[in-house]
């Protein structure tokens, strides 16, 4: 009997000051997101990277069943590009050092932010677009969750597909993260990595639903 596939989920989470308004919802949303992954037939490990003007790895390559309790402490500005670039290059280096048999079958990067880039110093948008394009060519999946912003414009400039981008209301953070978990589970299970129209309608900001 073959072993189940392995999957590494990397969550890049905004903890800048503007996240204070949705702090509790984000904590609950992360738990809901991970709970959605628990039903997956794959063997999952999870890495959580949070960022403001600094980047911190909260936990790394932890089995899904052993993920520790998490508390968000919003502060400071938004080094979104640096957080993404650091995460991608860190994971690329980690995987390159592993034997072929120990490498994950699937890598999924989930980026969640409610604000615009305003503090990166190490990476430019052009560099991030190149990195994401290279990793997508290798089979990595990138999911962008943008609260109360034009998430499609932001993710598009980075080279992330519209199918895996969700524009959502900050007041619907928990449900939106749960929805992202459902979509990722669907994709990993042999389906399509695509948010459905119904999923988008349930999570979109009111300003969009009124159009």
TrEMBL record:
Region annotation (Disordered) ranges: 171-211
SUPFAM superfamilies listed in its UniProt record: vWA-like
InterPro entries noted in UniProt: vWFA_dom_sf (IPR036465)
CDD domains: vWFA
Domain of life from the UniProt record: Bacteria
Protein name (database record): Uncharacterized protein
Species: Embleya scabrispora
Lineage, broadest ranks: Bacteria, Bacillati, Actinomycetota, Actinomycetes, Kitasatosporales
